[in-house]
Amino acid sequence: MSVSPEFTRGKIHDVVVKPLGKFLDERGWLAELFRSDETDPATMPVMAYVSMTRPGIARGPHEHVDQTDWFCFIGPSNFKVYLWDSRPDSPTHGVKQTLFAGIDAPMSVIVPPGVVHAYKNVGGVDGIVFNAPNRLYAGEGKSSPVDEIRHEDVAGSPFILD
């Protein structure tokens, strides 16, 4: 796969960013993360997990060949989300997009295959991220290779977090 060493800032084709509305009452709040009646069947989740990331820590950058990630950043911290379009046939090939999401801006971010992605906890407390990918991690029964191309330790990688 050919990777462009230079990325321009902009919005990436096929990445879906949706603010998550909070429904507030005296008990607290509720936010719908996804609904099947509002979801493209190609990105319909098949599993879900939550992760906790400590302040100042990043996850990624990495990408998937077939998997679409459906991240939901809801707090209690804030994250800087990094996206790089390395898909050769994409109309936004070579574009880098950054977002701020979390307690101050709850949102879902749907990341298609071939878009390199990472996120960093930029808040002062542990942060929780929900992900509902459209592929099973390591396949059925966890018996297949993991669909992940990691870029964290690649010398000269253009996928740099600031």
TrEMBL record:
It holds the Pfam family dTDP_sugar_isom. One of its GO terms (molecular function) is dTDP-4-dehydrorhamnose 3,5-epimerase activity. Its EC number is 5.1.3.13. One of its GO terms (cellular component) is cytosol. It catalyses: dTDP-4-dehydro-6-deoxy-alpha-D-glucose = dTDP-4-dehydro-beta-L-rhamnose. It comes from the Bacteria. The record marks 137 as: Participates in a stacking interaction with the thymidine ring of dTDP-4-oxo-6-deoxyglucose. Catalyzes the epimerization of the C3' and C5'positions of dTDP-6-deoxy-D-xylo-4-hexulose, forming dTDP-6-deoxy-L-lyxo-4-hexulose. This is dTDP-4-dehydrorhamnose 3,5-epimerase.
